[in-house]
């Protein structure tokens, strides 16, 4: 219980209330001491009135008056004359004097604490003003022990009352905290546990109901988190199912394409010049399709295969990409160009680099043809000190804000209506496998530019 939130509130409240009472204790005891001394002065003044009424009083009466006032002697100053009104034998010399006429709060508290911590009996002199302006001053001599005993008794009552108040206050706060804070927090914890048992079930998402502003904000944040997590888990489940379906389709498609490869041998034997010119491209496309199916079947391992690094001519590879894309342009006013030195040799996996550039060029082509406006796509490359840099630039309409926010995330970065949003995610992974980086260099009304940077060092 003491380790709980409400238990700690109980302890802290008790401690703070006791601390507050201690701060009140010292002024209270000082005030009690001042009232006690004034009371003795008033009693002494009343006793001295008997002497003023009759100059000669019986010694027994005088002792009775002094005992009633709890003082040893009384001196009164009237009309600038100081006169010893009542007196009796004193047990010793006066050790301290207190002038109540000039005592401020700090002095009174200091003297009160000094009196409490000093257990020795002392004879003290107290000076003050007579009540009802019955003179200039009144002075008495008294024993300090009755004063100290009265102060201790009063202090104990104060401390006992403080303890009772602190316990009652702490208990009330304990109950309030349990009702207003602990119970709603336990409710949130219970909702979290309930959701963790079946996070895919949207019915288990918390429904904010707390009346406390901070708790309501926590519930709203938890609801948002659970909603996103539930959606992500459902999406991952669909992706897993989709992956299984794609793997099965790719398996059969690979067999079909393998059979198609056999027919290309006969096509290459044709005497038709157009067929001879197109046959190598057809063979290359079918070979890449078969390779892609095999890679898709390997996707069950949750990653693209490691790149097989070789030296290849980048200009020739880009030319193959652009030739394949020109076949899909039809009659749209779209030009494709490349600016790559013919002698540029780079090290990488040519099949994966082909897929990288092909995906970027295809995305640009689909964006421009979808806009209905003429355009241009350009692939340029350069060699820097430690990297090969490839830029794919188009004059299309640019990427919408939503696509920029989730650019390289599968199933979320799609731009084209009906697109799955996988192209850029695949491109980013292939570039990353080469130790390189893919970034959106620019995207606005004037077009889009992607920059691929591949390091010249070995790719592990």
From TrEMBL:
Subcellular location: Membrane
Transmembrane intervals: 9-30, 154-177
Entry's Gene Ontology cellular component terms: plasma membrane
Xref: PROSITE patterns: HIS_KIN
GO molecular function: phosphorelay sensor kinase activity
Any Pfam family hit: HATPase_c
EC number: 2.7.13.3
Residues in coiled coil: 215-242
Keywords, in A-Z order: Coiled coil, Kinase, Membrane, Phosphoprotein, Transferase, Transmembrane, Transmembrane helix
CDD domains registered for this protein in UniProt: HATPase
InterPro entries: HATPase_C_sf (IPR036890), HATPase_dom (IPR003594), His_kinase_dom (IPR005467), HisK_dim/P_dom (IPR003661), HisK_dim/P_sf (IPR036097), Sig_transdc_His_kin-like_C (IPR004358), TCS_sensor_his_kinase (IPR050428)
Catalytic activity, reaction form: ATP + protein L-histidine = ADP + protein N-phospho-L-histidine
EC main group: transferase
Domain Histidine kinase: 248-458
Name of the protein this chain belongs to: histidine kinase
Species name: Salipiger abyssi
Organism classification: Bacteria, Pseudomonadati, Pseudomonadota, Alphaproteobacteria, Rhodobacterales
């Amino acid at each position: 219980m003491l380790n709980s939130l409400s238990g700690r509130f109980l302890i802290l409240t008790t401690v703070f209330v006791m601390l507050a009472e201690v701060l009140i204790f010292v002024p209270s005891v000082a005030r009690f001491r001042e009232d006690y001394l004034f009371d003795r002065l008033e009693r002494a003044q009343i006793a001295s009135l008997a002497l003023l009424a009759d100059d000669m009083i019986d010694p027994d009466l005088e002792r009775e008056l002094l005992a009633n006032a709890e003082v040893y002697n009384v001196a009164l100053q009237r009309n600038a004359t100081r006169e010893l009104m009542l007196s009796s034998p004193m047990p010793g010399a006066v050790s301290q004097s207190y002038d109540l006429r000039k005592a401020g709060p700090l002095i009174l508290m200091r003297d009160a604490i000094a009196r409490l911590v000093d257990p020795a009996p002392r004879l003290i002199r107290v000076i003050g003003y007579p009540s009802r302006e019955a003179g200039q001053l009144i002075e008495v001599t008294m024993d300090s022990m009755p004063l100290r005993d009265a102060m201790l008794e009063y202090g104990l009552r104060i401390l006992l009352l403080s303890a009772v108040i602190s316990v009652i206050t702490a208990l009330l706060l304990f109950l309030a905290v349990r009702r207003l804070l602990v119970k709603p927090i336990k409710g949130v914890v219970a909702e979290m546990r309930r959701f963790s048992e079946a996070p895919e079930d949207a019915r288990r998402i918390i429904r904010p109901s707390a009346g406390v502003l901070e708790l309501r904000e926590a519930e709203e944040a938890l609801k948002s988190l659970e909603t996103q997590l539930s959606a992500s888990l459902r999406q991952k489940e669909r992706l897993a199912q989709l992956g299984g379906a794609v793997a099965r389709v790719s398996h059969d498609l690979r067999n079909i394409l393998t059979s198609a490869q056999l027919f290309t041998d006969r096509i290459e034997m044709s005497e038709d010049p157009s067929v001879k010119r197109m046959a190598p491209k057809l063979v290359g496309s079918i070979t890449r399709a078969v390779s892609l199916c095999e890679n898709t079947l390997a996707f069950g391992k949750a990653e693209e295969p490691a790149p097989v690094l070789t030296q290849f001519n980048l200009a020739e590879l880009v030319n193959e990409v652009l030739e394949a894309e020109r076949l899909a342009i039809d009659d749209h006013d779209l030009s494709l160009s490349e600016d790559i030195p013919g002698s540029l040799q780079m090290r990488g996996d040519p099949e994966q680099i082909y897929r990288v550039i092909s995906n970027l060029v295809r995305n640009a082509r689909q964006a421009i043809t979808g806009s209905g406006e003429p355009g241009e796509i350009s692939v340029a490359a350069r060699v820097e000190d430690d990297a090969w840099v490839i830029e794919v630039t188009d004059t299309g309409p640019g990427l919408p804000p939503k696509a920029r926010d989730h650019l390289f995330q599968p199933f979320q970065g799609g731009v084209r209506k009906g697109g799955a949003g996988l192209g850029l995610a695949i491109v980013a992974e292939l570039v990353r496998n080469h130790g390189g980086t893919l970034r959106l260099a620019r995207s606005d009304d004037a077009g889009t530019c992607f920059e691929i940077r591949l390091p010249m060092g070995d790719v592990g």
